[in-house]
Specification:
It contains 22 helices and 25 strands.
C-alpha cells in the first residue's frame, strides 16, 4: 500500500478517513486522520481504498465533494436498472451508473451509499448484488413497521408525560396493551403478602416479560413489580390503594355484555312464571338488614292461627323466577359463586340492576319469594312446616338498630316483631340443648368511601340473633324437606368438635378469650349431596337456602326445591350437584381469601393513619407462646391482630398498645405496649 493513499476505516463503529503514512510491523499500517491522529490499522480494519492520494489536511475538502453526491434515493434508480439482470457492481461501477463519471469523490460516494444501504443491495465480498423485488418489498414493510413502532413509542412517551402531569389522556390500543402488561406484572406485589417475599426478592424471583422491560426502560424506570406499581399510580391508572389481591385473583369485576343484555331482557320481558304462587301479601313482612345492604334477600312474618298456635314465616327472595337453569345468567353466577364484599364496595353475583331490583324483596312492592311456614313446639323444635313459592309485599325495610329499638320499647303497634323475637330465643335454647356451640366475638365491618375509612364493630344484639335464628330455621326446614323427599341438595354439615374441657375453660376469663379458645377447636363445615349432622348448629340436617341472590349454592337449593314443589324432576342430578359444588367451592374460597386480605389491608391502613392513638386491647390466644407472639383484640375496632410482647402476659389480660410500625402493602405490623402514664399522656 503506497504512502499518501486515502483509506476508510472504522473507529468504534464510526466511519473515518485517513492517509497511509508508513508500515507498522509486518502487516499493519499507520494512517493519519484529518485531525493529525495516528491509527495503527490491520488490513481487515480497512473498509475502502481510494485511488486518490492526498494529505491529511485535504480530507475535509474531499468529504465536502463527496457530500454533494450522497442522495440515497438515487440507489432506487440504479436498483431498477440492475434487478432484472441481477448483475453485481463495485463502487466504481455504481459511480459510473449514478454519476456517469468515476472520479475518486464519486467512487467513494457510491461506496458510502452502498455500504449504508439496507434496502436495495447486499454486499458480496467487494461487490454488491441487487435484492429481488420481493425482498425489497418485504424490507420496505419492515422499515415501515419499525418507523410506526418508533412513532407509536414516541407518542406513548408524550402521553405518559401528559398523564404524569395530571392531564387527561386518551390511551391508544397499543398503549393499553403496554399498560395491561405492566398491570399484570405489578400485581405480583400481592405475593409479598402471600409468600412473605420482600419487594427486592420478588423482583429477583419473577423475571419481567420482555414488553415490560422495554416499556420500563424506555421510561427510564427499573423493571420491578414495585416500580411498575409506582408508574401506574403516577399515571393515574391505579390508586395508591389499588386492590392487588383482587387483581391477582380470577374474580371478574365486570359482567360480559351478553349477560347484561339478558338481564335487561328479563327485566323488560319477564319469562313466564312456572310456579303456582301462594298469595301471602296480607302478611306483615319485615326485612332486616344493615343500612348499606342493597341485595335484600330475606324477610320474616308472624301469624296467629285460628287454633291459637303461632306460625313463623321466613320469606326468601326468589331469583330463580328470573332464571332458567344453565342460561347465561345462571352460568355466569355459577362462575362467580358468590357476591364479594369489600370495604370499597361489592362485586355482585348477578348484575346489580337485577339483583337490587326485581330479585330483591323491596318494601311496598309485590315480590316473588320462596316462603317457609314453620310451627314450633314448646321446646323450640319444628312441629310442622310447609314450603311455598309465594307472593309477598314487604311492609317494613328495617335496620338491625331499628329492630333493637322496637324490641326495647315493646311497641304496641308491632306485636309481630316481639313475637318473632320470643320464638327466636326459644329456638336458640332448643338448638343449645341439641349441642349447638355458641361463639360470640366482635366483628369489624370496614367501609371505605372517598378515601375515608370507617370501622364499625358488630357485637351481639337481639335483632342479629333474631335474623340468624330465622335463617338457620329455614335452612333446617329446607334440608329436612330434601332429606325426606330424597332431593339432591348441597347439604352442609360440621363434624363434632373436640372442645376444651370445663376445667380448661374455667381457667380462662369469661368472654372473648374463652370464646376464642372454643373457636380454634371448631372444624370446618363440609358440603355433601347427602344429609349430615351440623354439630355447630345442633341440627341433624341443614342446607343454606336464605341467600340465593349472593350465594350460588343457595340458588342451587332453590332450583331443586321449587322443581319438586311443582311436581317436576329437579333440574340437577346428584352427580351434577356434586360437580357444581366442587367448582363453586373453589371460587368462593378465593373470594373469601380476597375479602380477608382486603379487610386486613384497610385495617392496617386505618392504624397507619392513627399513629399516635393508644388502643385498649385484649390478649385472646397464643400464636407462638415461646416467642411471646399473641393474638390481640383491639376492642374499639373489632380487629384481631398479632403482637409480640416483651413481658409475660396472660390470656384475657387487658393491655394498652400503640402502633410502632405498619406497612399495609407489605402486610407488616408492629405494636408496642404503652404504660398507664404514657396512655394518660397520649389521651391529653
Amino acid at each position: 500500500m503506497e504512502k499518501g493513499k486515502l483509506v476508510e476505516f472504522r473507529v468504534q463503529g464510526d466511519r473515518r478517513l485517513g492517509v497511509v503514512d508508513r508500515p507498522d510491523g509486518k502487516s499493519r499500517w499507520i494512517a493519519i486522520d484529518e485531525r493529525g491522529l495516528a491509527h495503527s490499522l490491520a488490513p481487515r480494519q480497512i473498509t475502502y481504498e481510494s485511488e486518490q492520494t492526498c494529505k491529511p489536511s485535504e480530507i475535509p475538502h474531499f468529504l465536502e465533494e463527496v457530500q454533494t453526491y450522497l442522495d440515497p434515493s438515487s440507489l432506487e434508480v440504479a436498483w431498477e436498472l440492475l434487478v432484472e439482470s441481477g448483475e453485481t457492481v463495485d463502487p466504481a461501477q455504481m459511480a459510473m451508473l449514478l454519476f456517469s463519471e468515476q472520479n475518486p469523490s464519486q467512487c467513494y460516494a457510491a461506496h458510502c451509499l452502498l455500504s449504508e444501504d439496507k434496502l436495495y443491495f447486499k454486499q458480496k465480498g467487494n461487490t454488491y448484488e441487487p435484492r429481488s423485488a420481493a425482498q425489497v418489498a418485504e424490507r420496505k414493510h419492515q422499515i415501515e413497521v419499525e418507523a410506526n413502532r418508533q412513532r407509536e413509542q414516541q407518542d406513548f412517551l408524550t402521553r405518559v408525560s401528559q398523564a404524569i402531569h395530571g392531564e387527561t389522556v386518551e390511551w391508544s390500543r397499543q398503549d393499553r396493551q403496554r399498560i395491561e402488561a405492566i398491570e399484570k406484572y405489578a400485581t405480583l406485589l400481592a405475593e409479598c403478602v402471600r409468600s412473605g417475599l420482600t419487594p427486592d426478592s420478588l423482583a429477583r424471583t419473577y423475571s419481567p416479560p420482555v414488553s415490560v422491560v422495554e416499556t420500563m426502560n424506555t421510561l427510564g424506570r427499573s423493571a420491578t413489580p414495585q416500580a411498575a406499581f409506582e408508574l401506574l399510580v403516577d399515571l393515574g391508572v391505579w390508586s395508591v390503594h389499588e386492590n392487588l389481591f383482587l387483581r391477582r385473583s380470577q374474580i371478574s369485576v365486570q359482567f360480559p355484555t351478553k349477560v347484561l343484555e339478558v338481564a335487561q331482557q328479563r327485566m323488560d320481558s319477564p319469562p313466564p312464571d312456572p310456579d303456582r304462587r301462594l298469595d301471602l301479601t296480607h302478611l306483615k313482612v319485615y326485612t332486616i338488614d344493615d343500612q348499606s345492604t342493597s341485595e335484600i334477600d330475606d324477610g320474616v312474618s308472624w301469624e296467629l292461627l285460628a287454633d291459637g298456635r303461632q306460625r313463623l314465616w321466613i320469606h326468601i327472595a326468589d331469583p330463580t323466577r328470573w332464571l332458567v337453569p344453565e342460561d347465561e345468567l345462571d352460568l355466569d353466577a355459577r362462575k362467580r359463586g358468590t357476591t364479594v364484599y369489600l370495604p370499597t364496595g361489592m362485586i355482585p353475583m348477578f348484575p346489580s340492576a337485577l339483583a337490587t331490583g326485581p330479585m330483591s324483596l323491596l318494601q311496598g312492592r309485590v315480590c316473588c319469594a320462596l316462603s317457609f311456614g314453620v310451627v314450633l313446639d314448646d321446646s323450640g323444635a319444628v312441629r310442622e312446616y310447609s314450603i311455598h313459592a309465594s307472593s309477598i309485599k314487604p311492609t317494613y325495610r328495617l335496620t338491625y338498630e331499628d329492630v333493637d329499638e322496637m324490641l326495647e320499647l315493646s311497641l304496641e303497634g308491632e306485636p309481630e316483631i316481639t313475637a318473632i323475637a320470643a320464638l327466636a330465643r326459644r329456638r336458640q335454647m332448643w338448638r343449645q340443648s341439641q349441642g349447638a356451640v355458641s361463639i360470640n366475638l366482635p366483628e369489624a365491618i370496614i367501609k371505605v368511601q372517598d378515601d375515608e375509612i370507617t370501622i364499625k364493630v358488630l357485637n351481639d344484639s337481639l335483632s342479629r340473633h333474631l335474623v340468624a335464628e330465622m335463617m338457620i330455621l329455614a335452612g333446617e326446614v329446607a334440608g329436612h324437606y330434601g332429606q325426606v323427599h330424597k332431593i339432591a341438595l348441597p347439604f352442609r354439615g360440621q363434624p363434632q368438635p373436640e372442645l376444651p374441657s370445663e376445667e380448661e375453660l374455667i381457667q380462662l376469663p369469661a368472654g372473648f378469650a374463652r370464646a376464642c379458645a372454643m373457636r380454634r377447636c371448631m372444624p370446618k363445615s363440609e358440603m355433601s349431596t347427602t344429609p349430615t349432622r351440623h354439630a355447630g348448629l345442633g341440627l341433624s340436617t341443614y342446607t343454606q337456602a336464605t341467600s340465593p341472590i349472593r350465594r350460588y349454592t343457595d340458588l342451587l337449593t332453590h332450583f331443586q326445591l321449587k322443581a319438586h314443589l311443582r311436581g317436576e324432576t329437579p333440574p340437577f342430578s346428584g352427580e351434577q350437584i356434586q360437580e357444581v359444588m366442587l367448582s363453586v367451592t373453589t371460587v368462593t374460597q378465593e373470594a373469601t381469601l380476597v375479602e380477608r386480605q382486603t379487610n386486613r389491608y384497610w385495617g392496617l391502613e386505618y392504624l397507619r393513619r392513627h399513629p399516635n392513638q393508644v388502643w385498649q386491647a385484649l390478649v385472646l390466644m397464643w400464636l407462638r407462646e415461646d416467642s411471646r407472639l399473641a393474638l390481640i383484640l383491639i376492642e374499639d375496632l373489632g380487629l384481631q391482630l398479632p403482637m409480640v410482647f416483651k413481658r409475660g402476659v396472660g390470656l384475657g389480660d387487658q393491655v394498652s398498645v400503640k402502633v410502632s410500625y405498619v406497612d399495609p402493602r407489605q402486610d407488616v405490623l408492629q405494636f408496642q405496649e404503652v404504660t398507664y402514664s404514657q396512655a394518660q399522656q397520649a389521651a391529653t
